[in-house]
Amino acid sequence: MSEDKPESQKNFQEQNKLPFPLIADSDGKVAAAFRVPTTMGLAKRQSFIIKGGQIVWNSLQAKTAEHAQEVQAALDSLK
Fold first, then answer.
1. 3-state secondary structure of 79
2. Cβ 26 vs Cβ 5: under 8 Å
3. What is the pTM of this model?
4. Using CA atoms, how far apart are residues 43 and 60, in angstroms rounded to an integer?
5. HEC string of 11-70?
6. d(Cα 38, Cα 24) in Å, to the nearest integer?
7. What φ, ψ does residue 55 adopt, rounded to 5°?
8. Beta strands at 54-59 and 47-51: parallel, antiparallel or unpaired
């Protein structure tokens, strides 16, 4: 999810051939609902895994370089 506009999200998805939709939060309501802090108007990078309507895992310090492996490990542990 990003604060980008829906058109930007769609273009990014198509350019990178992502097999899933991206969600735009251009008004910041979702970030606010999850209490994601902002700096200079930009939401801090955080990740959440939601299962059965509950947050079952989160990373409040998501770092791009290692994050994919971190999320995959979390998903594997939930199986």
1. coil
2. yes
3. 0.71
4. 11
5. HHHHHCCCCCCCCECCCCHHHHHCCCCEECCEECCCEEEEECCEEEEEECCCCHHHHHHH
6. 16
7. -75, 115
8. antiparallel
- Looking only at the bridges linking them, the beta strands covering 38-39 and 42-43 are antiparallel
Tokens of 4: 């980008």
Q: Name the token pair of 34.
A: 């999850």
Tens-binned pLDDT, residue by residue, of the chain (79 aa) = 888 899 999 999 999 999 988 889 999 899 999 999 988 878 888 889 999 999 999 998 877 788 889 999 999 999 8
3-class DSSP assignment, residue 6? helix
Tokens of 53: 């309507």
In the structure encoding, which two tokens stand for residue 11, read together? 């273009």
